[in-house]
Write a structure and sequence with these properties.
- With about 190 residues, the protein is an all-alpha fold.
- The chain has one domain.
- Helices cover about 80% and strands about 0% of the residues.
- The chain contains nine helices and two strands.
- Strand 1 and strand 2 form a beta hairpin.
- The protein starts with a helix and ends with a helix.
Length: about 190
C-alpha cells in the first residue's frame, strides 16, 4: 500500500512531502481559531472584536493549509505561465505581476488605515494584543499572496537563504508565532492572569 501511495504521489508531483509542517501548522492554527472563536465561556471574558478576528482567521488558515498541502502557488504559477503563453502575453507577464503587486500594496495600505480607525475605539490592552494577532495574520497573508504573484524580485527575496532557511520560512513562522503569542496573551488576560 505504501509503495502504491508513493507511486501515486510521484506521478502527481507530490513526491517530496518534506514540507508537512506548514500545512499541519496552519491546520492547527485554524482549529485553535475556530475553538476560541466559538467558545461561549470565552465570549463572556473577551472582546467581540477578538472573537470576530479569530473566526475570520480560521478560514484564512484553512485556505493556506490546503494551498500548502497541494502546493497551490506552484500549480497557480504553472497554470498562469501556460495561459500567458497560449495568449501570447508571456513577454508582458512582468507588467501583470507588477500590477498585481501594486494592488496588494494598495490593499495592505487600505487595511492598515482601517485598523488605525478601528484602533481609536478600543482600549490600549485589547488593541495591543489585537495588533499582535493582526500583524501575525497580515505577515502570513502577505507572504501567501506574494507567492501567488510570483514576481521575480519578490521571489528572489523570499527564496534567499538566511541561517539555513529561506527568508519566506522565517517570515512565515515568525508571523504564525506572533499571532500565537498575541492569542496566548489574550487568553491569559481574559482569565485574569495578565
Amino acid at each position: 500500500m505504501n509503495d502504491t501511495l508513493q507511486v501515486f504521489f510521484s506521478a502527481e508531483g507530490w513526491d517530496d512531502l518534506s514540507d508537512w509542517p506548514r500545512p499541519l501548522a496552519y491546520a492547527l492554527a485554524a482549529m485553535v481559531c475556530a475553538l476560541l472563536g466559538t467558545s461561549r465561556n470565552l465570549a463572556l471574558r473577551t472582546s467581540p472584536r477578538i472573537h470576530q478576528l479569530w473566526l475570520g482567521l480560521c478560514p484564512l488558515y484553512l485556505l493556506i493549509a490546503a494551498s500548502s498541502l497541494v502546493r497551490g502557488d506552484v500549480l497557480w504559477v504553472q497554470w498562469a505561465r501556460k495561459l500567458f503563453r497560449e495568449q501570447h502575453l508571456y513577454e508582458q507577464r512582468r507588467l501583470f505581476q507588477l500590477a498585481a503587486l501594486l494592488t496588494l500594496v494598495l490593499l495592505a495600505w487600505a487595511a492598515w488605515q482601517q485598523c488605525l480607525r478601528m484602533q481609536s475605539h478600543t482600549t490600549c490592552h485589547v488593541s495591543v494584543l489585537r495588533n499582535m494577532i493582526l500583524t501575525g495574520a497580515g505577515g502570513t497573508l502577505s507572504l501567501y499572496l506574494l507567492r501567488y504573484v510570483s514576481f521575480h524580485h519578490t521571489d528572489l527575496a523570499l527564496n534567499a537563504i538566511l541561517l539555513g532557511h529561506s527568508v519566506a520560512s522565517w517570515v512565515e513562522y515568525a508571523s504564525l508565532g506572533l499571532a500565537a503569542l498575541g492569542t496566548g496573551l489574550q487568553l491569559l488576560r481574559s482569565y485574569g492572569h495578565v
